[in-house]
Amino acid sequence: MMKRLLALIFILLIVLLISPFALILAAMQPDPLVSQRYVSTSRDAARTKEIIREIRSITESDSKQLIRVSEKDVNGILAFSTRAIPAVRGRAMMLSNGLGIRASADATRFPLGGWLNFQVIINRSDSGLQLSSMRLGSFDLPANLFVPIIGVVLDAVLGDGMGSVAVNGINSVSIEKPYATFGIALNESQRKALTSRVKEVARSATGLSNAGHVRSYYLALDGAVKAGELKTSGSALPFLAYALRRAHKRSKDASDRSEVKAALLALAIYCGHPKFQEIVGDVIPAGTSGRGTGCSKTTLGGRVDLRQHFTISAGLEAAGDSSIAFAIGEFKELLDSNRGGSGFSFDDLAADRSGIRFAETFMRASSDQRSRMIGKMAIEKAVFPRIDDLPSGLSEQQFKSRFRDVNSPAYQALLKEIDGRIDRLALFSSG
Description:
2 domains, 5-stranded antiparallel sheet
């Protein structure tokens, strides 16, 4: 009897472990529900930035906040979000009874794969977040269970019930075509706790939740400036070489990547922008914020802004993922192409992609490879590509006229040309 009971328990455990994967495989479909990726425009980028500001303002007010979005707004946010995840595409539709969201994930490269399609309808409601339907592939799922599950998943990620606080903070949804309005109600303690926990989790995801490690590199760079080892004008290349040389010496063994990561994150703060420390934690010494650094007037490619593009992109790559780093850079260029901006500039994108490649290569390099690469960092031409002939400062209309959008063959061809120039840099050659 006991043997049969143990066998039954074992079988149940196997079923519980396998069933989610079996459901996903069974839900695969031959065609995507979202046939085309929504193309984000400069106006979408500007609106997405506004919405992010509105969401951030919730952390500064005790009163109920209302966030109103149109179908186009939601599609713009989805386009920006999925730009960093090429295999996923999403689409929103404002319906008479709610806000419909569809997503398709490309799994055709995997055995037994296909398209994993998901759709959900967010209902109008005066009592929290409610869903009227949810479907995975051809399977209808219990929509009333999804919101609690989101809370449980977020609780697991954020801890201390913060996921449920975030989900329950949405206390109403109203639909008046073409807008959906979400009511947010969080008290001061909830707002502060949720904001703090989100930052902690984001910082922990970098693999360096202890900002002291990054601070040691920041202080070393500052100390080298004060000692006269690094000049406060001219090329920023010596700052890059100094930080990576220090990381190489401090690495425990050939597989140690933590020192390189700390160096790149410190460079993103010291030579990129002080706000980058929000990703890592408190790095800049108290009382010195806003004074500028010894790197502030240095350049890459002869320009201060290109140095910032390069080091911030390198820091983002060290903290996370190259697709995310580039998506953020591309988003900024779309913003710049709006009226009053500096224009869409491929030289900026070249600096972004160079910084990403710089970080990616150093993070993956063996000890011997790192040593050889540092030895090649004597001149900028070894690290930074030629950009003088790249289109720069394009207005929204000029960008559309020449490239249509970021998914067009012309746009992709120019990115490929930029990547080719980066590939040929001495720093990344095998010689």
